[in-house]
Design goal:
Layout (H helix, E strand, L loop, with lengths): L1 H11 L4 H67 L5 H25 L3 H31 L1 H89 L13 H29 L9 H7 L8 E8 L2 H8 L1 H20 L8 E4 L4 E7 L3 H14 L4 E3 L2 E3 L3 E8 L6 H17 L4 E3 L2 H22 L3 E10 L5 E12 L3 E3 L1 H11 L2 H19 L7 E6 L1 H4 L4 H12 L6 E6 H6 L1 H14 L2 E7 L6 H4 L6 E4 L11 H16 L3 E5 L4 H9 L4 E3 L10 H8 L5
Helix pairs in contact: 2-3, 2-5, 4-5, 5-6, 8-9, 9-10, 12-13, 14-16, 16-18
Length: 702
């Protein structure tokens, strides 16, 4: 018996979940089809009844209502006929006849549409009442023509009006009967609808019961095996790749179990690959920073050192020869570093890793500065040979940052950071190597706080605007000043512009300084309007400012707010700053010129500007750099060059000013060469406060 049952299950393929689910869903589908078709059939029946109701009974009801209305109307029309003068009777006859015909049409339409016996009997009575009215109507009309209105009115009241009343009463009886029939049909339709709803509810309940039984069977044959599969999958997800699932009784579960077993094996293999990719550099197969930190548990120990190396000129190699060549160089460098590290015979060999780009790190144990220096020299020795890259031969060199712990253990991240600080110090000083010192750390922290201090300096007015006079060489009269920024820090004291201005340019805060200087210069010009109305102030503009398309609008707003003549404010732009993006810069300079500002090219001669661009610049002044002015009286070749610059400037319609004049001989030489103006210590150092006011007071009257 058991074998026969198993054979039947095999023949019907009931060990397959799909077959079981198909049979279950087929049964449910059949039940729900019946549930669906039953109301559809009933709806069709009700629709047919509704169509019959709409086409016959509603139409009959409308006919009866119209008949009642027509009966009332004919009585009023006949009364109107009996009261109008003789000459107006013809149109009234026509109106009465039309209404009589309308009554006849409605009776004929009702006779054709009725099927109820009682209604047909009522219609027969209605026709009899219609005939009686018609006879009395004819008598009344003849009497009207023969005997006059009074006799006709008497007949109308005695015979026609009662006949019309009877006809109207019969119409209302007919209407009541028709309304009762409609209500009866509606009640029957409602009963049919309720019976259909009850049958649908019973069938739906039966379907739900069958669905519950099938759900229970499905739970036994599907959900429980799937739960076992889920448990196995979770064990795999938790890293137990040795877990194996015992095949189930159903074919699908058995196949999924086999697939899970295969997946566990494949994931185990791939995880090893992913872990290797996560902890090793794919190009050099060296450990990376993550693995270095994981291996040493993020902690340092005494007598531990780190050599951080960065491949010099890697960016140039990538841009010039391509990234493939750059990768070849990195791989070759890594190979050479491996050879050096492998030669160490110490108890614990140095540990080599690649960090990022062209950066490598060697973690040294039980070592000293002399040992690390020796390792450094051996690395330099193996880097002496150029790297062969196809047809190219690339010289390689490394920049080193070295850091060490002696007695106090440091976390490895701290040691790496110290080595990075030393590496950046070596790069800043253009050295091949640098050891980490506390001074480097202090300098780094100082620069970090400098940015915050600079914002505070602008906000708290710690900055100062010093002014250096500009004089005409012909008559020695002052016509303006160059504004120079100075910073008097409340705790650090005087901070040189050479320190914080380049820092502000690198961090993007130079625009903040420029706007502070511009507003200071404009407010100063506003204060000079009464006593020194012809004096100008020139403010230096950085390359960063020239990239800001809103810069001209900001200056225009400042000038408008303080009501200062734009011609008194000058902007000095470096030659190199113009040449970074000459086309865009020229457009911005023209906008500044349109405001009314005078523009000057600062440090002229130190850049590489093209004369084709120079003649397009909307500037009014060239400022010769101090490098051409120093000792110019004793340098004939420099004099020839400066004379050519002055002639070129005059040829372009520009005035020429020389900066950095410190002796009378330099001033006289430049005057003889045709230079227009001068600026430098010989005329005056930069002035501030009382010294500036004294200098202004001593100016000759205009």
């Amino acid at each position: 018996m058991r074998n026969s049952f198993d054979r039947l299950i095999h023949i019907l393929r009931l060990r397959r979940i799909g077959v079981r689910l198909a049979l279950s869903y087929a049964l449910l589908l059949g039940l729900f089809t019946i549930v669906l078709l039953l109301p559809i059939s009933q709806i069709r029946k009700m629709t047919a009844q509704s169509n019959k109701f709409a086409t016959k009974e509603i139409q009959s009801l409308l006919y009866v209502q119209e008949l009642s209305l027509s009966t009332e109307n004919v009585g009023r029309a006949l009364l109107q006929l009996l009261t109008v003068p003789y000459e107006q009777r013809i149109p009234e006859y026509a109106a009465v006849d039309e209404k009589n015909r309308q009554i006849d049409k409605l009776i004929s339409a009702l006779e054709a549409s009725l099927s109820d016996d009682e209604q047909l009997q009522t219609l027969k009575n209605l026709k009899e009442k219609r005939n009686i009215y018609q006879q009395n109507y004819i008598v009344t009309v003849n009497q009207l023509e023969d005997e006059g209105q009074e006799a006709a009115k008497s007949t109308f009241l005695k015979q026609v009006q009662p006949a019309l009343g009877n006809l109207l009463q019969e119409s209302k009886t007919f209407l009541d009967r028709e309304q009762k029939l409609i209500q009866q049909h509606q009640a029957e339709a409602q009963q049919d609808f309720e019976r259909t709803g009850m049958m649908v509810a019973l069938l739906s309940g039966f379907a739900v019961l069958v669905a519950a039984v099938l759900a229970w069977l499905t739970t036994r044959s599907v959900v429980r095996p799937l739960a076992r599969l889920q448990a196995s999958a979770l064990r795999i997800a938790n890293g137990d790749y040795q877990t194996r699932l015992t095949p189930g009784k159903t074919e699908e579960v058995a196949r999924v179990g086999e697939a899970l077993n295969a997946m566990a094996t494949a994931i185990g293999i791939r995880e090893q690959t992913v872990e290797h990719l996560a902890y090793y550099d794919p190009l050099t197969d060296l450990p990376n920073r993550t693995f270095m930190l994981k291996t040493h548990d993020g902690k340092g120990e005494p007598h531990q050192g780190l050599i951080l190396m960065d491949l010099a000129r890697l960016k140039i190699i990538n841009e010039t020869l391509g990234f493939d060549t750059g990768d070849t160089v990195i791989y070759d460098v890594a190979t050479r570093l491996k050879s050096v590290v492998s030669q160490d015979d110490g108890e614990r060999k140095p540990w080599l890793a690649r960090l990022a780009g062209g950066a490598f790190a060697i973690l040294c144990f039980d070592t000293s500065k002399s040992t690390m220096e020796n390792l450094h020299q051996r690395i330099d020795a193996v880097m002496a040979e150029p790297v062969k890259c196809a047809q190219h031969s690339v010289d390689v060199s490394l920049v080193y940052g070295l850091a060490i712990t002696i007695d106090t253990a440091l976390p490895l991240m701290t040691l790496i950071r110290n080595a990075e600080v030393a590496l950046y110090a070596a790069k800043r000083s253009a050295s091949a190597a640098a050891w980490y010192t506390d001074a480097q750390e202090a300098s780094r922290l100082s620069h970090l706080s400098l940015l915050s201090d600079l914002r505070s300096a602008v906000r708290d007015s710690e900055l100062q605007m010093w002014l250096q006079p500009k004089l005409h060489l012909v008559d020695g009269k002052a016509y303006g000043f160059e504004a120079l920024v100075r910073w008097q820090h409340p705790t650090r004291g005087f901070i040189s512009p050479a320190e914080f201005v380049p820092f502000a340019e690198r961090t993007g805060y130079i625009s903040m300084l420029t706007m502070w200087m511009l507003e200071k210069a404009i407010t100063t010009l506003l204060g000079w309007q009464q006593n020194y109305p012809q004096q100008t102030i020139a403010v230096n503009v950085s390359t960063h400012d020239l990239r800001d398309t809103s810069f001209p609008d900001q200056i225009a707003a400042l000038l408008q707010r303080h009501a200062v003549n734009p011609a008194l404010l000058k902007l000095e732009i470096t030659e190199s700053g113009i040449m970074e993006d000459p086309d865009s810069t020229i457009l911005l300079l023209k906008r500044l010129r349109d405001i009314g500002l005078d523009l000057s090219i600062d440090d002229f001669g130190t850049g590489y500007s093209s004369l084709s661009y120079l003649q397009r610049l909307p500037v009014s002044e060239l400022k010769i750099d101090r490098s051409f002015v120093t000792n110019i009286d004793a340098l004939p070749s420099t004099q020839s060059l400066v004379k050519a610059i002055i002639a070129m400037g005059h040829g372009l319609g520009l005035s020429v000013i020389a900066e950095g004049i410190e002796t009378a001989a330099e001033r006289e030489t430049l005057r003889m060469l045709g230079c227009d103006s001068m600026q430098g210590y010989f005329a005056s150092k930069p002035l501030y406060g009382e010294a500036l006011q004294t200098w202004l007071t001593n100016l000759p009257a205009n």
